[in-house]
Amino acid sequence: MKSIGVGLIGTGFMGKCHALAWNAVATVFPDVARPRLVHLGEADGELAHRRATELGFARASGDWRKVIADPEVDVVSLTTPNQFHPEMAIAALEAGKHLWCEKPMAPHFAEAEAMRDAARKAGKAAVLGYNYIQSPAIRQIGRLLAEKKVGDLNHMRIEMDEDFMADAETPFGWKHEAASGYGALDDFAVHPLSLIAVLFGRVLRVVCDMAKPYPDRALADGGRRPVETWDIASALMKLENGMSGTLLVNRSAWGRKGRIALQIFGSKGSILFDQERFNEFQLYVTSDEPTEQGYRTVLAGPQHEPYGAFVPAPGHGLGFNDLKVVECRELIRRIEGDRQARTIGFDEGLEIERTVHAMARSHEQGGWVNVR
Amino acid sequence: MKSIGVGLIGTGFMGKCHALAWNAVATVFPDVARPRLVHLGEADGELAHRRATELGFARASGDWRKVIADPEVDVVSLTTPNQFHPEMAIAALEAGKHLWCEKPMAPHFAEAEAMRDAARKAGKAAVLGYNYIQSPAIRQIGRLLAEKKVGDLNHMRIEMDEDFMADAETPFGWKHEAASGYGALDDFAVHPLSLIAVLFGRVLRVVCDMAKPYPDRALADGGRRPVETWDIASALMKLENGMSGTLLVNRSAWGRKGRIALQIFGSKGSILFDQERFNEFQLYVTSDEPTEQGYRTVLAGPQHEPYGAFVPAPGHGLGFNDLKVVECRELIRRIEGDRQARTIGFDEGLEIERTVHAMARSHEQGGWVNVR
Amino acid sequence: MKSIGVGLIGTGFMGKCHALAWNAVATVFPDVARPRLVHLGEADGELAHRRATELGFARASGDWRKVIADPEVDVVSLTTPNQFHPEMAIAALEAGKHLWCEKPMAPHFAEAEAMRDAARKAGKAAVLGYNYIQSPAIRQIGRLLAEKKVGDLNHMRIEMDEDFMADAETPFGWKHEAASGYGALDDFAVHPLSLIAVLFGRVLRVVCDMAKPYPDRALADGGRRPVETWDIASALMKLENGMSGTLLVNRSAWGRKGRIALQIFGSKGSILFDQERFNEFQLYVTSDEPTEQGYRTVLAGPQHEPYGAFVPAPGHGLGFNDLKVVECRELIRRIEGDRQARTIGFDEGLEIERTVHAMARSHEQGGWVNVR
Amino acid sequence: MKSIGVGLIGTGFMGKCHALAWNAVATVFPDVARPRLVHLGEADGELAHRRATELGFARASGDWRKVIADPEVDVVSLTTPNQFHPEMAIAALEAGKHLWCEKPMAPHFAEAEAMRDAARKAGKAAVLGYNYIQSPAIRQIGRLLAEKKVGDLNHMRIEMDEDFMADAETPFGWKHEAASGYGALDDFAVHPLSLIAVLFGRVLRVVCDMAKPYPDRALADGGRRPVETWDIASALMKLENGMSGTLLVNRSAWGRKGRIALQIFGSKGSILFDQERFNEFQLYVTSDEPTEQGYRTVLAGPQHEPYGAFVPAPGHGLGFNDLKVVECRELIRRIEGDRQARTIGFDEGLEIERTVHAMARSHEQGGWVNVR
Question: Following CA atoms C332, B32, B81, C307 in sequence, which dihedral angle do they give, to the nearest 10 degrees?
């Protein structure tokens, strides 16, 4: 394919991560043409130019609309805070650009729906940044499930925990305001839901409970303000495929740094995974001799696609940023029209958001709710 | 104190375990007088005599009432199937015997209440076999919580999983009949609830969902019969102390053998524990240097009471049966009137059963229920 | 068989452990007659009587010769400090008693040889307390090796580490005197060597280096005295079966509590084990699918003999003291003339001591030495 | 600084890894100018051009001398097989280029010495590819040792194991010929020695034993040929700083994929590390409460430099290729004259090779040898 022109809007955690991915993708994957880093947008021109130098972009603007308007830009990486996603995403799609948008789609479901509609109308690739689905271990788990290696699935549990909100002394910030969303549901639950989507399918019903460890937090001026978001959310769920399961998230979980712990139970075995050690997974199968049955700790290696594109030796390990490189490659495949590309587009993404809003609704109403 | 005369009714898994405990308790704990193994009861006289020889009891009867009537018997170990507990327990208490009764109390709440009433009336020690509360690690965790080592608690998760029901080929048996109870709720949930009771206190509200991986199982005669019990139960809960939490149990969880996994989150740290490796626990505290914070894997040793009564060297490990020895010692302390003894009596046990029935009710009704 | 009369000499760590084993063995193993705890010997009569009450022995003496002379004593448990082993062991054997002697045999090789000669002459069971060979996991590993599950063996590594000598502030004691032996070689190396003996066979050649972290230690009177023993010993070795290997021990290894870490490499897989988690082992086999190869963590269960005699449910765990119960049962089998009993007798024990002395000689001479 | 022009010779495992590093370094580290990928050399021109396109280099040559002669090339990445290092490295240095040379330096010590001399004479940066010293965890361990967090060091053990030679059916190849070097000593031992160099300093004396699991291997024509190299090497050692230690390597260790296991013992604690999980390390300190002492599993995060340059969130994990990006950044700092740069230059590298040759000499001679 011809080289792709890249525009990047936003240069925080995910902005740098996207830049690294665009930079590396063609070197890692021999079948991908080298993208051109064309135009970077930031909140003001000075910052934009500094970042463009750092991240290797040719041009910079203090106005994101110029990035979208740039005729050399074929695809826009959108990494701004969630609240800006709808306007920017829709504008990019309407301008005929492909779109790589960080998750979640938008604070409000109606906005996410409008984004989905714009993507459908534009007919362009519109891919969300659910990078955890891209690891060699999760892909291998997906293959094992498809092969029924652990038999017919009947139950799953998934947890996502970090501790960036765990400190009671952290002052009140924008993530404690209701305007930022529900809290851990938006920050975290969407990630496990992306894994549920690729591994198991749709969620039908949920009952959810949310909690806040600290009811108020200190203000800069010395007072305290009630916290409006929820750091903890726990849900029971029924899936369309007949499985039952639980989804538990906590962004105030001291000691957890990047945990996404998955337990999958089937009629012939089980599978465990933890994102904190995402270069391995654990497999238990009943076909092993009774005296030798146990969880196998499988270290990712070249036999687990696409590990080998990064390192030819097993057990050497990919990093978090490498997952974004894989995602970028899948995005490019999607842009090229490859239907086998492993991405979460705006249709599937909307389903994830629908489930999140159902969980919040369940908490408010105090009982089971249908996702649809 | 004077030597205690012991009667044992039932000689299955727990019967042998009680016998081992009565045998060892005085050798392990120097402050305990050596119990006399007086009278063993089994379903028929021949079996009773064989078991009495094997387990070291002086007398044997094919009628459990003779054990209870034996004037040399001071305390009765009751290890028969749950459905026999009410009649036997009440008879023993009415005969003025102390009672060590395996968990859970009874299939029906009214029966458990009657047992509780009998215990109150008799004024004798009536202790339930919740041995998991006795391990050095769980006791140390209790001390850490009391010292607020991890700050104010805000959330907990507890799971209990084994795989003895995981094989779809296992034929229909009595544990699949509704008469045996709810399923995993009786078999498993009571154990985590005993830990919740000693570590956190009472449960106020629950919402619970149950599932059965295999809707029917093979009968001996070649047909199939619907399974009436539930192997999986998942619950969200609110505790009296303000914590929220989850309790997840599964007796069809391939690969899990004796898992009771506990996660405790507080404002200053967190604690992890897994019964499959019950000689250790994990502690994370925010008072460690930021560059050196991490879960400490603490191996049980003599500094964790009562490990040292078994082995003076750390890291050598206690076994499952040792927990029952500790429980037996606490029972003897209770018999001697020691109010500091760490036991779960019939009052606390009834509270556990109340919660189990509330969980079942929640599943039936499809929403949150109050435990009381 | 008829009941065995037991005499116990010494009531420290191992003395209590033997008493617990004699107490429990017949209850755990249905095929063993209940031993009678006849006569306990300690350094003085008052202590002896106190301990006899605590440990459940019928008689007590302040003179160990009376224990040996007691006609009701069939077997003597010898758990005194190593230096007393030769005189007591030889006297017991000459008195026609069976003998259960704690390891190692004696500080000096000639003494150990004399013990071996006495055992041969007496024709009685003479068994050493190498309990680590008795665990279900180690036995299962032995079976796997015999079945060539990991192919032809080519290399092994074994480490044993604890930290009871790790504190630089611990004052000078008898274990720092040369009279107590070499140090970690006597305390620790004999245990890994017992595992090597049962799993792989004899050691042919060794090169060993010893080290002491603290050259001197404080005396009670305020001065300091040079340490004469070695806390650390490291050796390379060649085995009779063609394997090469390493044996590394350290009793000043902060953080290690009861580690005996074993790595076994063969042409078709490998096996790992650590005594700190001795209810599990790890198995890697090349016959697993390439995408699913990994170390299986196998939890001990009833399928791993003799676990089931203790607990019928897998994953519940044995404790350190349980290993001594197994050893006691094997001793009784040996007394009964069962040649299949799994014990380390004085012949095999002498071979272990021979290797230890060869290691010390290698350190002194600074090069490889032959064991024989 | 001004932009650096890069030449790359060799495009295998390490060649691609260098290319990725040159590509990413300026995006990851804001203080580094973006390198220009100028000229790629491969064995023939066609391959060179293909690789140049894949890896993003502007020019390509089938003759490595043209890369070195290219005036736009400031630094040469040398990733060809070891035997070519001496000629190419010396030519590059003589041409006034900086040099990034993969480890080890050369098969023969005299060649390595000549390379070291050339580097000294040229006065250019000459850095070896010892990337394992660059991980945030190893750097943090270095800081902890410098702060005496675990007290005075007295002992260390280090192991490096993989299984790429473990299959007995792998046919005879160039790595089985003596011309390729000693075997595991060259492939592996140099890596642990690089860690010893940065963490502890120089090795004084060694005794080493080598072994080969498979004495011969199949030839393509059907016969078998004796294996001339050694897959296993085990050594005891004395360090200049007074520590004793062991270095054990095995490239036929089934189940091991990228293990570099380090154990460090001091008077106040200990540290563990394993490269298979290089985003974490374990720390045991005696300053923790006795009831709470245990190995802390510390997950790498932004507090462990230079993790934060890659990901601002802890516990998300770096990958193997990221270590090479760090190394590349340190190389650039070295080129810029920064004496604080963390690199292993040709002087330190020669010391590592000297130790390797001493180990081989010890094996041949059968005893202890001095490194110098």
Answer: -30
